Amino acid sequence: MSIYVEDFRKAVSNSGMAQFKEAGRQELEKSMKEDLEKLQATASKEEAEITRKDFDGFKKLFHRFLQEKGPSVDWGMIQRPPEDSIQPYEKIKSKGLPDNVASVLNKLVVVKLNGGLGTSMGCKGPKSLISVRNENTFLDLTVQQIEHLNKTYNTEVPLVLMNSFNTNEDTNKILQKYTHCHVKIHTFNQSRYPRINKESLLPIAKDMSKTGDNADTWYPPGHGDIYASFYNSGLLDKLIAEGKEYIFVSNIDNLGATVDLYILNHLMSQPNGKRCEFVMEVTDKTRADVKGGTLTQYGGKLRLLEIAQVPKAHVDEFKSVSKFKIFNTNNLWISLAAIKRLQEQNAIDMEIIVNPKTLNGGLNVIQLETAVGAAIKSFDNALGINVPRSRFLPVKTTSDLLLVMSNLYSLNAGSLTMSKKREFPTVPLTKLGSSFTKVQEFLMRFESIPDMLELDHLTVSGDVTFGKNVSLKGTVIIIANHGDRIDIPAGAVLENKIVSGNLRILDH
After folding, report:
1. Contact present, 369 and 224 (Cβ < 8 Å)
2. Other beta carbons less than 10 A from residue 168's beta carbon
3. What span, in angstroms and rounded, lies between the C-alpha atoms of 281 and 258?
4. Keyword Cytoplasm, does the record have it (predicted)?
5. What is the pTM of this model?
6. I want to staple 190 with a disulfide (CB 3.0 to 4.6 A). Which of 127, 220, 233, 492 is the partner?
């Protein structure tokens, strides 16, 4: 579980606290500098300049990690955001679209965060290459969406992928298949930072290689790294020179994060001096989202507040749907010129997240990370827009995958929309047990994806399989006890049913 710096300090032993005292800090920073120089000396010629920039960024982060004192937020200073700082989407939409949609679209760049692997769903390689609908991957759907925009409006909206060293090679191989698409695709890499020993707080890597004993010694430092790595790549300047003004950033696994012309028009129609430099799309919390980061007013600025920053005494208050009604979807619209200005002034302020890990050999390490949305307080005229839930459709688990593969959604030009045949717009609550965790196992358990148009709640646990053309309605709970197996027969209609025990369909 990720924590913020003050909680990490509380957790370290008293003997370790010396590292955070002035003399200890200076000594540690000197040792860190020496270790990084030794590592840098092992970099190839091609890697040398990138490594230098990466390590410069890491040293700044590490310095802040050692310097930070006290809690990152003072609970007494947290206020609800002023009414006009979070606009309802309907108000934005009511402004309509400009006569020339192409003129605003040509100022836009779509950026997808593509640094993650599919390991949590039992897949090797980049998560973006997992098939989610009709053999289309996350990346396929993204390209289809932008190509549709470009063909419809005769525009040149490019796609930029922020890869990590974990995903870059596989992603670049697959990009060849899009050569004939009407979408320019650029990539840049997140930084590569060294994991540090939890006790000594020094790097565990012996050299710059990423294989063998060194495979677990590096990490991509969270999506907050986008500002520095985008700037360092040279791509930011290139896009500004091409006349681009805003990026729309989102996680590649959020299938609801499509380009919204109304939000884009709102950004582009502001008077120059009042230009909004940062928009965060938020949506109403449900009971399932109580841990999601929320927008608050803090020191006169909009600020993202994450659950890990909340003092334990106030966690229940944070989770309250009545006090903090919205959460961050991580769909963000950010001014390119503002990123350039702030990056050059070293003025992007993001809280440090300490992410502890235990490696295979049992070694405890930490990685220092930042989150892209936390920078909202550094930008001028920042705004939240309360968007419909349909713009937040992340696929983090096979339970999510089941929903997007089902007839709850229809697919058109890479975009998923809720079926008109579903009587209410909410998504069913779906919980699949550990037998379904890996995508391959999940697919083997369904001969075809069930009809879920009238489903409210599905819980499946244990060794369960589904035949063809099964229909699930209302609340359905299927539990196969240990050692038992349940085969739901082809054509079965389960409505408000609990199925348990052993139900094996035998061939005869």
Report:
1. yes
2. 19
3. 12
4. no
5. 0.93
6. 220
How many CA atoms, within 13 angstroms, populate the side-chain half-sphere of residue 298? 18
pLDDT over 80 at 30, yes or no: yes
For 293, what's the count of Cα atoms within 13 Å in the CB-facing half-sphere? 20
Of 192, 247, 285, 199, nearest to 17 (Cα)?
199
Q: Which residues are catalytic?
A: 396
Torsion angle of alpha carbons 292, 293, 297, 299, nearest 10°?
Answer: 150
pLDDT at 16: 52
Calpha distance 479→122 (Å, rounded): 23
Average pLDDT score over residue span 15-25: 63
**228-265: pLDDT as tens digits:** 999 999 999 999 999 999 999 999 999 999 999 999 99
Maximum Cα interatomic distance, the chain, rounded to a whole number of Å = 79
Q: What is the CA radius of gyration of the chain?
A: 24
Whole-angstrom Cα distance, residue 87 to residue 147?
29
Mean of the per-residue pLDDT values for the chain?
91
Specify the length of the chain in residues: 508
Torsion, CA 171, CA 173, CA 176, CA 177, rounded to 10: -70
Q: Which of 182, 278, 168, 187 is nearest to 238 (CA)?
A: 187
Are 164 and 252 in contact by the 8 Å Cβ rule? The answer is: no
